[in-house]
Structures are given as structure tokens and as C-alpha cells.
């Protein structure tokens, strides 16, 4: 019985090929759009997640200079208010896992005939743990390098490629940073883009003391540009932020009511906001695409209504020879269902193909998940049944006598 | 239980803007098994409405209708559909075949609604098509054959579930007299096999094939007899 009905549905669709195709087209476009938009949204989310995990977890950044809230302050940019002792004091606080004071600047780097301008970071070995950064080749400088301010350097992938090309292993080579010779002791594992789009691999990391004395020597001795702080856990972060604030205000002798000469930023919170934004964007894309699915469904309903009217006489005949109401209902419902399912399958193919095109030609990451395909399939099937139901019921409730008389 | 149709004090009103309009007024008719009845009467005399009620397509306003022993007024939609499917075979003036389907599928269609499997459906359809003389056209479509042949297909479709009763509404109305005669001979043969037949017709030579003539006028049966010439005289 059911297979006979399925055959009839197939038959009816074949009888009006162009119309069936156009109806399906609405479904194809709807499903294709949903699958593709979800792939784009998912791709964006995954690349954000990658950036976040490349940043390190539970991070604060303490910057010198007043927070950029009010109007102009005198000489904020150059007043380096933080120093290594501040960092040591923060490390003593409860709930703090690691601390790394950082000074940085851009510098011209030379190796043989090549030169390259890159960001030079002066910091402690703890920086590597906080940032979750590993060495591909070589080793990280140690605390004794900090004490003796040795001229050693870790080099990022991008900088290495530009100075050495593909063939040379940078480890053991001597480069010149601002005319001072440095020996490369390690190559950093690539991290890719940061949240704000910077290439994190375009960098050189040297011991903090070396940077302070040999590279950025005109600054106040012992001062750093910022301190990177890692809390022990997500839960410890609010308390840690408060503690860092009060500790530094106390150390810097700042009176009640006056502005701090530093600012604490919760990087993880910023990252989470970014992730949340992307998620919202992905949802929005999906929602907009769903509208076209809805329109496709309305198209099915429209055509089914036309079909019911056209086949009124046929329905009358079927009723006269013994079709029950539900036989007629099932027949038209099945027809709507088959149209939407076939349209859906083709739509999924279009969506997956479109996602691949976007990836190859627009360079945006797209990820087609099985969830998105399952979802599109389920939605399309329900749309077919939902929008097919009204016309099918209309057919089933026809008066057989009037239907037989219909010309 | 030898009566296929028992109709007692049947009334049918149509609701119109001007109020209830009576179409059938106190109609009584008993059709025994194997009977062959021709219903005649002018347009608007209520014979079509009566046929619709006999065919379980319409319900009477009042009165009793027993079809093959079933009290039709007590049955729901699905049970009526089953009666139409198994007990009654319909033949229409306009043939009413499905244009897109082959003759085999057209004839087999009632069996789809009786839940018969595909192989049996096709075997049985082939059998009845052969019986009406169209065994060679199984896979043709209705528009490829003549009107007379189409009516044969419709009769084959009516026969496929071995009905007790065939209801034919002007079965020769669209056919020329020679073809009409052939179709009527087919009905005569079916009747001699024991199938009860009720047909509506305008033509006397068609009505003469039946054993019994019933005449409607203004919603009432005004003539009911097994003698044929009486009808001729009235007109």
C-alpha cells in the first residue's frame, strides 16, 4: 500500500517535471543556504577558538600607564610605571599560577644579506608556559640567561622564514638585532593569527634583562611595558584581578580616589566576548538562511494546492472506488514529502559544494558538520510535512460527488 | 439476505438560500440479488441524487438504506469507503479513468485501497481486462483507445473486487449506438453471472436491456415494473 503510494507520488511528480523541479529548487536553495551559512559560521567559530587557545588560558595583562578612560594625561606613553619587582609581588598573590614581565618594541633584524623588521619581546621563561608556546627545535633560554643577560633569542616561524629561507636551520646561527649579535637557541612552534589579526609568529623572544640593557636601553632601568599574569583557574580570576589592583596601587602609593598608573585587562574575558560574538553571527547567518527554507516550504504548499485543484476529479474517482480520507491525505502528504526530501538532498550537495568554493576562493574557513546536515535534513522533512499537510487535508476533505463533477 | 438494496421512506433535502429544497420524497425500492434495474426520468427528477445515495457517496436526510444488509446510515467514512471498494462497482458516463496511468494500473486501482499486493493486483487486473476484451491493451493509456474501449476498462475496474452491485450512471451517454449496444451486452452478461445492476439512462432501448424499469418524477418513484412497454407509452 505504502510502496504503491510512493510510486504514485513519483508518478505525479514526473507528470509535471518543470513544476516539480521549480518547487524543488526553492527547497534546494533553502537547504543549500542553511548548510553553507552554518559551515561559514562554524568555520569562524573554530578559527576563533584556535586563536583563543593560542593565546593561553586565564590571562590578565597589566599595562603601564593610566587606563584610557579620561582625557589627556601628561606623558603617559613614556612613563613606564611597572617594573620587575611588581611582577614578583604579583606572583606572591593567592590564585596566581605564573607571571611574566614583558618589555617589547620593534627592531630591525639582520642575518647575512637579509633584513626584517619584527616585534622583539623581552621576557622570562615563564612567558612560554603562560602563552602555551612550545619550541619546535632547540630550547628555551633559562633563568640564568636572565641573570647574566645573555644574547640568546627564540625566533618565530615567520621571522625565521624571512631571514633564513626554507633551507637553513636557524638554531645556532647569529643574527643582529639593532646591531647587537644574538645566537638563536630555539625556533617557536607556529601559532598563526591572534584575535586581533596579528601574525603571532612574526616575532623574536629574548631574555628580559638583555632586552632592557642591550636593545631598549633608553628606558628607565628595570621597568617593563606590561606584565602577563596567569590565574590558577577561571574561578580565581575575579578575585585575582581585584588583588592585583589593590596590590599595585599600594606599591605605587596611589591615594584613595586618584587614578591608577596602570591598568589590568582580563584577556580571557575579551576572548570570550569575541567567541560569543562569532557564535551570535553564526546563529544569525543560520537564521537568515532558514528564512529561505521557509520560503521553499511555502512554495511546496502553493504547488500542492494547485495540484489538488487540478486533480480534483482524480480525487473524486479515487474516493468513489474506495479510497478513505486518510488514503488521499497520505498520497498528497507523501508527494510533498518526496519533493522536499529530494530537494533537500540536492540542496545539501549544493551547500557542501558552496562551502568548499567559499573556502577555496574567499579564503574563509568553512566547516560542514554532520549536525548541520542532519539539522537541514530534519527541518526540510518537517517543512515538507508541515506545508504539505494543509493541501493534503483539503484534498482528503473534498466532497466526492462535487469532485467527480469537477471539470 | 437476498436483497442487495433496501430503501425505505428515503428523503433527501438540499439546503439552499431559500430554505430546504426536497429532492427525494419518500422513495421506496427493494433490489433483489441478481436484479437488473434501469432508472429513468427527466433531469431534476432526483435520480442522480438517488444514485449517489445508493453509491454511499451521499447520505439521505431521512429514511433507511440497507446495502447488502448493512445499515448505511450507521456507518462512518472509512466503512463507507470500504463498501464502495468491495461491494459496489461504479461505472460513469465520462469513464473517469486516470489519464496518466496504464489500463492495467487503472483497473488495479481499487485493489490498492483493499491492501492487495502488487503481483496479485496485476494478475487480477489482467484477468478482468481480458474478460472485457482488452487483454491486448494492458499497458496502453486511456487516450490511446476509443470511448467504447475506455468504458470497458471502467467496467473492468468496477469488476475487479467481485462486487455484489454495479451502479452505472448513464454508461452509454457518451457513446454511439453501436458501441452502446456492445457495452449493454457486456452488462447483460455480467447480470447473467448474478451481479445486480442498477443503471440510470435516458434512452429507452438501453433501458430495455434491464429486467425492471423504475421511473422518477419530482423526487418520487412514479413507475416500477418488470413489464417494458408501459414506459414506452408514457413517453
What does this protein structure show overall?
The complex is a heterodimer of chains A (407) and B (235). Chain A is α+β, with helices and mostly antiparallel strands. In chain A, 56% of the residues lie in helices and 18% in strands. Chain A is built from 13 helices and 12 strands. Chain A has helices spanning 2-15, 17-55, 84-92, 126-130, 143-148, 157-164, 208-215, 237-251, 267-310, 312-320, 325-362, 370-396, 400-405, and strands spanning 59-64, 82-83, 96-111, 114-123, 135-138, 152-155, 174-177, 180-188, 203-207, 223-224, 226-231, 262-266. Residues 74-78 of chain A have low confidence and may be disordered. By secondary structure, chain B is an alpha/beta fold. Chain B has one domain: 3-Layer(aba) Sandwich (Rossmann fold). In chain B, 34% of the residues lie in helices and 29% in strands. Chain B is built from 8 helices and 10 strands. In chain B, helix 3 packs parallel to helix 5 (147-159) and helix 4 (118-131) crosses helix 5. Chains A and B meet through helix 1, helix 10, helix 11 and helix 13 of A and helix 2 and helix 3 of B.
**Given the helix and strand composition of chain B, which structural class is it?**
alpha/beta
Radius of gyration of chain B: 18 Å
Strand content of chain A is 15-25%
Shape of chain B: globular
Dominant shape of chain A: elongated
CATH architecture of chain B: 3-Layer(aba) Sandwich
Parts with pLDDT < 50 across at least 5 consecutive residues of chain B: 229-235
Task: Tell me the distance between the termini of chain B.
Answer: 36 Å
Largest sheet entry of chain B: 6 strands, mixed
Strand segment tally of chain A: 12
Number of strands of chain B: 10
Low-confidence stretches of chain A: 74-78
Count of alpha and pi helical runs of chain B: 8
Q: Which pair of chains has the greatest number of interface residues, and how are they split between the two chains? A: A-B, 24 and 27 residues
